[in-house]
């Protein structure tokens, strides 16, 4: 009365556990890189946005 794919599911879960055990340090490192680069992009975007909000020169300075 077991599902026909029950054995396949067990094998797949075992393979996933093995993969995670072998490569968890790489997956963790990759996650840290993604998080870090995302934070850098946000920081850069915020800096650019704030620079566009305030003009670098006033009209008086430009007319001199």
UniProtKB/TrEMBL annotation:
Database matches in InterPro entries: ARHGEF33
Name the record gives this protein: Uncharacterized protein
